[in-house]
Amino acid sequence: MSLVMQNLGTFMVYALAAMFVQNAVFTRGFGVSRLTKLVADSAVDSMTFCALLSLINVLCAPMSYFVNQFLLQPAFWYRNYVRPLAFTVCALIAFAAVFLVIALLNLPNKKDLLAVLPLATLNCAVLGPMLITANQNYNFAQTMGFALGSGLGYAFAVIIVTEGQRKMNSRSVPAVFRGLPINLIYIGILALAIYSLTGHRVAI
Amino acid sequence: MSKHGRKIHEGNALNRDFIAMTVPVYLMAFFFYGPRALLLGLVGVLTARITDRFAAVLRGRRYDSTENSSVVIALILVLMLPATVPYSLVVMAVLVAVLVGKEAFGGYQSYPFNPSAVGFCVAAVSWPQQVFRYPAPLNWMLQENLTFEQLLSLWRFEGVTLVEGPSMTLRNGGLPRIDFWDLLLGNYAGPMGLCCSLVILSCAVYLLVRRRISVLAPAGFLAVVCLIAFVFPRYSEIFFATFPQDVIQRLQVVKFELLSGAIIFASVFMISEPGTLPKNPLSRLIYGILLGFATMMFRYFGTYELGTCFAILLVNAVSGYFDRAIASRSAKKKAALTTASP
Amino acid sequence: MRDDRIRYFAKNMDRLSRRDRVFLNNPVIMQGLGLAPVVIPATTLGNAFILAVGVALLLTPTRMIATFIGQRTGSFLARAVTYALTAGVVYIGVGYIIDYLFGTGALAVGIYLPLLVLEPLIIKRYESPKRERLITSFKKGVITTIGFCLVLFLMAGLRELLALGTLGGIEILRVSLLPMASMPAGGFILLGLVASLWRGLVNTFKKNISLGVKNLQ
């Protein structure tokens, strides 16, 4: 029982850490390219995107954990080279699972979901957490916590930047700053605030 | 229009009040830390003015000298630094505050983040050794047979021992040993403008009378700070089990949490900054409460002892949401009322 | 500017502002691709060099191979899968070469090298249904690489100079002007400033061309 509680505690701590202290966007810049596009056009519902991304992240985490354990055997001296490919395959398996579920469930907004799904899967914010958990040799609870936290942290970043977008659209931002530059500065200032929680440069 | 026929910027009067109210604080800083405090402020203001001019050139606009919000930004920013920081640090911090914090977002009142907070955070993460270590106050008066240069320490601070402030003691789970009146007047090692709480509060009275600052946001902010400090004190000798007996000690902790650090200063000079404050009264209160919570989180779990500025940046990012949420709710109510009454 | 050049630019401005991947339509500044490597690990020219080699080896081959296979598939999903898997496969070779060239030095860019596999800069092409010839994909791959590396080196040099006062490890300034430049926050803010300046230059260039055309007439 205490073991379960202990692992649950680890899970929570790593999820919170990944969400705020090591936020995927503000400290590591995962998926910023996608984020700046996401907040700029309202065609894609950003919350749907984030939900799918978190789901894919959580589904990928156990797979990537076992794949990484497998690759850690001494026979695989080339493990660092095949890791991205292996993790991409993990992401694609998760993708296929989610795809099937959405297709079978017959949800009302099925078409939109399926259109966004590839963008949410083939994303640095999915591959990045997997690479970090593999590099830092996280155990299973830590990996799961980190994956969930990364997904939620990405959503947190999207919400906060969308909010800023709203503020800046209605106001007098100079022409050359409009769009990408002002978004980058906005993210940068938030990264500054988050940095005081982290307190050091995160391991990359 | 003034009598010279030149148009005066809309924010001029408001900013003039803020500038006037930083003067007493600067005088206290002068009293405690010598003329260097004033010089630092002057350098900050000059940098802000030059940066404004430069930004006007970049944007291809005419420079409006009555738009003095950058002066306020610089004056407030410099007050949060210790009197021993090098001039280059002040120049860099003010430059970033005005150029990135204000002008990049479109200038007067269109910035989403408090520019002074941006400048301070940049200085803090860049040079934590200089920003979070303070000289002892009144040192410059007490030394015997000073040379002119030593007296002023104008160009550089050398040979002065720097110490950590009371916020650091609180962080380490201790209680600072500072007399109550010293604490109120600011007679302890700290940033040059943040310690003299009594003077800052009297400035607040003037600003309140002139209706320059709001009551709700600072009230929510201070209440939450006190509440968190009382319920979860950082003092290592207080535990949950000891609750009813240790009220006095808990109140001690609240006193230090409230009066040290930038709590009072921020609630007077930074929270009510008109560009970033929500418009609706209720959202102002929520803004203050959230800010208080975030500040305490940054103080408890953050790296730096002055978490207030970092918290302000984070809460500024979401402050627009409250206004929208409340506006849409009241719009719905109105709609419901009009449909209900034929 | 000479008259015939003005005429040339004026005539082809639309096409150029789509295709010129170095200045007018830079992948980083204009399209916002490949931000993560520029903003986080590119803190010194040395790091930038490792990343540049990685991108140069990964981008063009991936694009060519995926174009070659993708011609036969066609649907959006299939294209997405093709591009991602191709990048993964190509990375096996790239990782080996980088290890051979830089050894443990490549640790300085950490996971940002393998992360390139799903970087939009490399695989963004899958979103477009338009087919392209193999030679076109080669040309575009090379020119995108050049455009990316230009910004990468510019930013890395700027950040190294501001944060450490050095360039490529050689001391230029005695003091560190802004240590924040080497942090993620500094990377974001500096890239924002550089992007705005760049866009300002592009606007001025376009304005000059249209003014020049008016003067010619």
Entry keywords:
heterotrimer; A: 204 residues; mainly alpha; globular; B: 342 residues; two-stranded antiparallel ribbon; 2 strands
Question: What features would you describe in this structure?
Answer:
Chain A is built from eight helices and no strands. By secondary structure, chain A is mostly helical. The radius of gyration of chain A is 18 Å and the shape is globular. The two termini of chain A are 35 Å apart. The relative contact order of chain A is 0.20. The model of chain A has no long low-confidence stretch (mean pLDDT 88). Chain B is an all-alpha fold and 342 residues long. Chain B has helices spanning 12-33, 35-59, 69-79, 87-102, 115-126, 128-131, 139-142, 148-152, 166-171, 180-185, 197-209, 216-231, 247-259, 263-270, 281-301, 308-340; strands spanning 134-135, 162-163. Chain B has a two-stranded antiparallel ribbon. Chain C is mainly alpha-helical. In chain C, 67% of the residues lie in helices and 2% in strands. Chain C is built from seven helices and two strands. Chain C has helices at 3-19, 35-39, 45-73, 76-102, 120-123, 134-164, 184-216; strands spanning 166-167, 170-171. Chain C has a two-stranded antiparallel ribbon with strand order 1-2. The two termini of chain C are 15 Å apart. The chains are: A mainly alpha (204), B mainly alpha (342), C mainly alpha (217). Chains A and C meet through helix 2, helix 4, helix 6 and helix 8 of A and helix 2, helix 4, helix 5 and helix 7 of C.
